[in-house]
Write a structure and sequence with these properties.
The chain crosses the membrane at residues 36-65, 85-105. Keywords: Membrane, Transmembrane, Transmembrane helix. By secondary structure, the chain is mostly helical. It contains 4 helices and no strands.
């Protein structure tokens, strides 16, 4: 239970329990937005690594994640989102194709 006033101490650990976390996340995770965000962050992390295989994996994450954002934009009729992530999708695709065409050993 949350404290009733600011001077009352509340236990912290019950808030961190898995059922409580699931309860607060219920209805907040989106079918396309959540994986799109995670793939975007994974792509940025992988691109920051020096290995070419990591770059290819990063571009792949971005291609899939940006595709999910385009799908989200279409379903929500958000033309700004569609335009931006269509551009990002194409640039990630270009990056992957250029990396593969460069003949870098993967």
């Amino acid at each position: 239970m949350p404290p009733k006033n600011i001077n009352e101490k509340a236990p912290v650990l019950p808030y961190l329990s898995l059922p409580n976390i699931k309860h607060h996340l219920k209805g907040k995770l989106h079918l396309t937005k959540t994986p799109a965000v995670l793939l975007g962050m994974a792509g940025a992390t992988l691109i920051a690594l020096p290995a070419a295989t990591a770059h290819l994996a990063g571009f792949s994450c971005w291609i899939i994640g940006n595709g999910l954002w385009v799908v989200t934009g279409i379903s929500e009729k958000d033309y700004h989102l569609i335009a931006q992530f269509s551009f990002f999708f194409l640039t990630a695709l270009m990056g992957a194709v250029m990396l593969l065409a460069s003949g870098v050993m993967l």
